[in-house]
Design goal:
alpha/beta, six-stranded mixed beta sheet, about 20% strand, globular
């Protein structure tokens, strides 16, 4: 392979308990290869979860470590990098000041990512392991992404996401909760079990129901120490229930010092072992699963995989955009919003978007966002028929869509909520106005909810968007709604939208 074909990339994870740096060689022919890995234990989460902010001393240490990371990156002559911070930074009240000091002192730009983005990137790391991921998600698989701050449980079946939820069951957070209890291992164990079961049982009642889960895919740094002890030579292993329980029984009643000696880890890491292994034991029992697959991947591996895909260097692998759409449709289903009307509005929105995309100034990501808005646009009716737009906004803004950032999710909520041009003008956001205008017209074309306009042609020519529909019936309601929004569409895009009904005899 020619040296010029290799791109050197750095990924940084500013986590709740550790800072991690990965140096990667990325090439279209050979894929992604991690060539260096550095980590440093720094419990940012201890500050955030206890006091709500990161202390001056912790900031200083953080800047020093990242400055060292910068030197390592320079030694490899990395061409690009991505640095992401997760829950500890996300929840810290002084995170903007921290990011500014990091930028000034180390020269590294840190991007705080939402929980849904973090988990999505983690799933990309699993996909980078090859075909095994696709094999497992075809039938009854749960991904348990256990971090220091929280845990994400995601159910896959038929190759797509069925449901996903974030739970406040991060091992550092759990450890902080029981730290003040008397130093009696059995008592700590019982309290942890009750805390974990409380959330898992709620998840089971609402989302699991009659679904069968054969395999758990376990990811997250805390549990890797346990599995490295079980198999020192492998970062990718499958463990059946009996083998897991054997280890669990060996660990469950041990003190931190004893776990430290058994697993050969530091005291700080030994404190995280019991919550980690207890979470998976309860998940095993909850799902009645047969095995855990530990791919041994880290968030930084997902960051590299995400970069390789977005840069077009590597195009193979799982279609994660379909997971975003599937997750949105499952939300709609939960609120009885997956009607024939929503399907038609989704189709209409994409047809309009594609017809004007060359002159709209919108990007491919915007196509996905307007598609999600179309899928979810009427879910508020389940809550409030009279003020369904606001109810839809509240559902979307307070929930989570895997793979979508907080800002993107709020944009989708705004698109779904705005029903008048005056409200859109008040927002003074041209991207919001454009996507809202598309959704309004898509919805207008099925105003009767009777899917009269199933087949039509739509073409842009000479700054006129012509929609021709062959239909013998009455389109009065659709035309009335169309006409009420077409002037706003023209103002926003500078395109005249024309609806022509063709009657054939």
């Amino acid at each position: 392979m020619e040296k010029s074909e290799i791109k050197y990339f750095a990924a940084i994870d500013v986590g709740s308990f550790e800072l991690e740096l990965g140096i990667y060689e990325i090439a279209s022919k050979s894929g992604i290869k991690r060539v260096d890995y550095v980590k440093h234990t720094i419990a940012l989460g201890s500050d955030t979860y206890k006091y709500g902010k990161i202390s001056y001393e912790m900031i200083d240490e953080l800047c020093n470590i990242l400055s060292d990371f910068r030197k390592i990156m320079d030694s490899y002559k990395v061409e690009d990098y991505r640095a992401y911070a997760t829950s500890a930074m996300r929840e810290a009240s002084n995170n903007m000041q921290v990011l500014d000091q990091i930028k000034v002192k180390s020269g590294i730009d840190i991007n705080i990512i939402s929980n849904s983005e973090q988990r999505f990137i983690s799933y990309m790391s699993i996909d980078s392991k090859g075909e095994r991921f696709e094999k497992y998600i075809k039938s009854g698989t749960a991904i348990a992404d256990v971090g220091f701050g929280s845990m994400q449980l995601t159910l896959y079946d038929n190759g797509a996401i069925q449901s996903t939820q974030n739970l406040s069951l991060g091992v550092l957070r759990l450890r902080e909760m029981v730290d003040e209890i008397d130093n009696i291992t059995e008592k700590k164990h019982n309290v942890l079990t009750e805390l974990i079961d409380n959330d898992l049982n709620t998840f089971k009642k609402i989302y699991l129901k009659n679904k069968k889960v054969k395999t758990i895919i376990g990811i997250g740094e805390p549990l890797m120490y346990v599995f490295k002890y079980m198999d020192h030579d492998s970062g990718d292993m499958i463990i059946d229930y009996e083998r897991f329980i054997t280890l669990f029984d060996k660990i469950r009643d041990k003190s931190v010092e004893e776990i430290e000696n058994i697993l050969g880890v530091s005291k700080n890491h030994a404190k995280m072992i019991l919550p980690s292994i207890l979470i998976f034991q309860r998940i095993f029992d909850l799902f009645n699963a047969r095995e855990i697959w530990m791919p041994g991947t880290l968030l930084i591996d997902g960051i590299a995989a995400e970069y390789a895909k977005k840069s077009g260097i590597i195009n193979a692998g799982h279609n994660f955009e379909e997971d975003i759409i599937a997750s949105s449709k499952n939300i709609a289903k939960r609120y009885r919003g997956n009607s024939k009307h929503s399907i038609v509005v989704e189709k209409n929105a994409l047809l309009i978007f594609d017809a004007i995309k060359e002159v709209s100034g919108l990007k491919e990501r915007d196509r996905l966002l307007v598609q999600i808005a179309a899928i979810l646009h009427n879910i508020g009716k389940f809550i409030n028929m009279k003020n369904s737009a606001m109810a839809t906004y509240n559902i979307i803004s307070s929930g989570e869509i895997i793979g979508i950032s907080h800002d993107e999710r709020m944009l989708v909520a705004e698109i779904s909520n705005i029903s008048t041009e005056e409200n859109i003008y008040n927002k003074r956001d041209i991207r919001l106005a454009k996507l809202s205008a598309i959704l309004q017209m898509a919805n207008a074309l099925d105003k009767s909810h009777k899917q009269k306009m199933k087949n039509f042609s739509i073409n842009l020519r000479d700054n006129k968007l012509l929609l021709e529909i062959s239909y013998m019936g009455d389109l009065s309601l659709e035309i009335l709604s169309f006409n009420s929004h077409k002037d706003f569409f023209r103002e926003i895009f500078g395109i005249e939208f024309i609806l022509k009904q063709v009657r054939t005899f």
